[in-house]
Amino acid sequence: MKISLKPQHLKRYRQITSLMLRFGFSELVRSSGLEELLGEDLGKITQRAHPKPAEFARELEAMGPTFVKLGQVLSTRGDLIPVEYIKGLETLQDDVEAVEFEKIEEVIHEEFGQSIAKTFLTFEPTPLAAASLGQVHKATLPDGREVAVKVQRPGIRARLADDLDVLDEVASTLETLTQFAERYRFKGIVDEFRRTLMRELDYRTEAQNLSTLAENLQEFPQLFVPQPVEDFTTARVLAMDFVKGRKITELTDEDRERIDGPMLAETLQKAYMKQFCIDGFFHADPHPGNVMLMEDNRVALLDLGMVGRVSVEMRERFLRLLIALGEGRPEQASDLAVRIGHPGTDFNEREFRSRIKTLINAFQGAHMEQIQLGSVVMELARAAGDTGMRPPSELTMIGKALMNLDELGRSLAPGFDPYEAIRRSAIPLVLKMMRQNTSPAALLGRALEVNEFANQLPGRVNKILDRVAENQLEFRVRSFDEQELVQGFQKVANRIAHGLVVAALIVGAAMLMGIETKFKILGYPGFAILLFLAAVAGGLALVWDIMRHDRNMRRK
């Protein structure tokens, strides 16, 4: 089948196809026909080895801002990307080429209607950091307050829109022609990516995120969230508190001696668990560049362009899932994962449960402080994707955040045990959840649900009775393997029959004991003894069969 894509995007198609081939999706490319775009270069590309995680990140960075952001989004898709590549994509945050200062001046003038000199008291031309969508400069407001000013790259909106069209066309082609892309909903990934980028391009949304997070974390004085300056914030410019500090991952042994590292690590873990389980709103990208140790030994959380939201139903299940994973309970973890996810028509539940059991057993012998809990969650998401279940996006985003928290916690305190911190905070979190569930607003919501149920109940009952009367009522049941089920019933029936025969032999032997005969064994009636010995042999055979079967089941 021939592909139909826009010729003006040919260069981008070739880049994407080449990357997919080298990343290991050669079968996907061939099934969709995208390999036709490469022509004579196809042989050269397929002969090269799959790229290492760092190399994959560098190639995305070379393709421009859109693909840098795509890499950040892919790093939250544990069901699609292996854990080692997720860690490699962390390097996408650094070393992005800065925009010329003259272009930054133009953006400031367009947003505020006046020059930088009239808007700010001072404005340093050299950026503090350069990201894929914008860069940050240090400045001083007219009242003397030091701020960090985030300025969007000029022309970035048009460039992103063009690249998003390319990704949408490629995803649609792949999803139409390949089962793999359909299972993982490539088109849905691109659509979600588009919505995420559009939100990030409006810095007023990030300003609101900063304010919301600071309010939610008021009970943690050791944490600091820079606040936006409303009068100096627009869709393309964001002014916020200036933070002096250094990356937590760059701390030396001397730095750790002057701070209470274990306390800060546990506070950070508790704060994020509160975000996941109570607030339902969390900082989704706490990579080392976005979490800093300030001069006053507080921890600052920066860059809230990417945030996650957790539904009320998901919060409790996620906490229970973490506890089940840490306690080594594969059955409970599998049950919760199935309830959290969205099983497809081809979902292989038996294989999924087997993968979860193997995953949990793999770290049972290790000390919990050596286990990266975030990696375990991402591996769980990977197992779900491989077996036909789509994990919710918030689960993979939380897994990615936990991976970063594992690294940050051990940078603050090398012996830090993240799971133990989660276990200590579990009871307070559950109590807060219970208080939330019994709040006036929650009770009112339940009352409205009951009212809606009562109003709709008569109509639904009438529909059921009508279908019963017309013989149109159908039930859909997810059954077990019929052959295995029949074999199980047959084995049970055989054992029952065996037991009845043994019982009959014993009863017969007992009845014959009272009848005197010339044939005797050990002074007892011979036929009675023979029946008794036959009953003993049959009983031993039955016991042996049961023990052998149970032993084989334990081995399996």
Describe the structure concisely.
By secondary structure, the protein is of the alpha+beta class. The chain has helices at about 10-25, 25-30, 40-45, 55-60, 65-75, 85-90, 100-110, 115-120, 155-175, 180-185, 185-200, 205-215, 255, 260-280, 310-325, 330-340, 350-360, 375-385, 395-410, 420-435, 440-470, 480-510, 525-555; strands at about 120-125, 130, 135-140, 145-150, 225, 235-240, 245, 280-285, 290-295, 300, 305-310, 340-345, 390, 520, 525.
What layout of secondary structure does this protein have?
Elements: H1 10-23, H2 26-32, H3 42-46, H4 53-62, H5 65-74, H6 83-88, H7 101-112, H8 116-119, E1 122-123, E2 129-130, E3 134-140, E4 146-152, H9 156-177, H10 179-183, H11 186-200, H12 203-216, E5 223-224, E6 237-241, E7 245-247, H13 253-257, H14 261-279, E8 281-283, E9 291-294, E10 299-301, E11 307-309, H15 312-327, H16 330-340, E12 342-343, H17 349-362, H18 373-386, E13 389-390, H19 393-412, H20 418-437, H21 440-469, H22 482-512, E14 520-521, E15 524-525, H23 526-555
Parallel strand pairs: 5-10
Antiparallel strand pairs: 1-3, 2-3, 3-4, 4-6, 7-9, 8-11, 9-10, 12-13, 14-15
3D architecture notes:
The protein is of the alpha+beta class and 556 residues long. It has four domains: 7-94 and 160-179, no CATH class; 97-130 and 133-159 and 180-242, Phosphorylase Kinase, domain 1 (2-Layer Sandwich), CATH 3.30.200; 247-438, no CATH class; 482-555. 60% of the residues lie in helices and 9% in strands. It has 23 helices and 15 strands. It starts with 9 loop residues before the first helix and ends with a helix. The mean pLDDT is 80.
